[in-house]
Design a protein that fits this description.
The protein has 160 residues and is mainly alpha-helical. The chain has one domain. The protein is built from eight helices and no strands. The model has no long low-confidence stretch (mean pLDDT 85). Belongs to the SWEET sugar transporter family. Its main location: membrane. This is Sugar transporter SWEET1.
Length: 160
Amino acid sequence: SDLRQMLSTKSVENIQVLPFLTTNVNNLAWLGYGCLNEKWTLIVVNAIGAALQTLYILAYLYYSPAKSPVLLRTLLLLVVLATGYVTLLSVDQQTRKAGLGLFCSVFTISMYLSPLADLAKIIRTKSTRCLSFPLTVTTFLASTSWTCYGLQQDDLYITV
């Protein structure tokens, strides 16, 4: 719905990029975790998710009048992700799996918390206009699905 709104209004007004940036980093991190653990469900889902999130961010950049802050946030999150990956290359396989799992869990939590960045604005204006209801529902359903999958796979990091 946010993408549809951007395309129809040719504007990013009332649309936040932070949830989509964190989701993209989250997808890329879980993609790495899936590759490391050879879990094809993680690989396929997160490869598709990363591609879609990247397209969303490119559309946001196209319609955004202030491109520098968006690019800076994007680069900062990618540097954090790359730093995490590079740091994990210097340790053994088991430690790498645990470290990347923890890294992914932290990003997942930040992704779910990112819409709260507008909490002060929501309280001040007494309006939830800047929150996407479809995104909220989808996030709830996705998190529930991943929790069930993590329990099934006996993988604490996915469960978190």
